[in-house]
Amino acid sequence: MTPASRTSALGTWLNRATVVVPLLAVATLIAVWGRDLPAVVEVCVVLLLAGSVLDAVHHAEVVAHRVGEPFGSLILAVAVTVIEVGLVITLMASGGAGAATLARDTVFAAVMITCNGIVGLSLLVTALRHRVAVFNPEGTGAMLGTVITLATLSLVLPTFTIGTPGPEFTGPQLAFAATASLVLYGLFVFVQNVRHRDYFLRSAGTRRHHGDASGPADEDRAAVPSVRTALSSLVLLVVSLVAVVGLAKVESATIETAVADAGLPHSVVGVVIALTILLPETLAAVRNARRDRVQISLNLALGSAMASIGLTIAAIAVASIWLATPLQLGLGPTQLVLLALTAGVGILTVMPGRATLLQAAVHLVICAAFLFLAANP
């Protein structure tokens, strides 16, 4: 079998998997709902849950590609937000010991993983291949500034407000933070896809640095899916989202028990959720970095961070009306230090529009420190 035929066979198998896995996940959800499951079945359910997350993002990307920008970005962001909110609310509704801080832990984990882990990996892959990663500081800086503002409004201020005891917003404060998050995210989508789209594309300086005279229009673009393909992906997207939320409900008690039995703090649950949700973005960012499209990788990373805060906080703020569990969003001292370090290092990385292995290593070390301290506070 030639390499081309092996690649074609692999692509065919993956396309079939994106259809089979969501349907199998829903069938499994119906079969296991409300039952005590043996360990082997629990493992299968977790694997199907992870597969459904990957497939949901894949089908959202297909629909987004067919619709085009700026609505395509919104569809993809909404799909990822539904997954994140569904997982968080499902676990919060169980009323466990850390339910009140689960939303904070998940959103903060998403910010740290995207701004340090995915950014660091993207810069590392590009710098290893081209010595220097070159990107547009205008668009990347705008994204980073928006992420820092959203994180401060939603995760830092609740620690210092005095309207309620503890790291919580009052009702009006939460409504303001949620509204501001939605406004900033909506404005970002408009600026990225309509008003200043060139700020978020591969710059001319990047092409000159790597000896490439082609412009953004010459970069490889996948064929636009047909209407039939897009409609099929839309149906499978809904099926995948139902499977994700349902299987998360099935596994909620098991996840919390496993974390507690391992002697880990409850904040690790939020890290697990964030890692699961961000796996597709991580793979896509690394794939683009390998193709010398670091700007696209940074767009994916910081755009995911922005959606995680801007849309998730707003959705959970609305859901908190019906949840009996309080919503504690304020970060603790260690988390505040890590967020401040991330903001400072991110600004220094973005300002020159160029990064080397050193900047990549710094971001990856911060991500590693976050993961280590999440398990060993």
TrEMBL record:
It is found in: Membrane. It is a multi-pass membrane protein. InterPro entries: Alkaline_pH_Ca-Antiporter, NaCa_Exmemb. The chain crosses the membrane at residues 12-33, 39-58, 70-95, 107-128, 140-162, 174-194, 230-248, 268-286, 298-324, 330-350, 357-375. This is Ionic transporter y4hA. The keyword Coiled coil does not apply. Keywords: Membrane, Transmembrane, Transmembrane helix. Residues 43-192, 233-373 form the Sodium/calcium exchanger membrane region domain. It comes from the Bacteria. It comes from Streptomyces macrosporus.
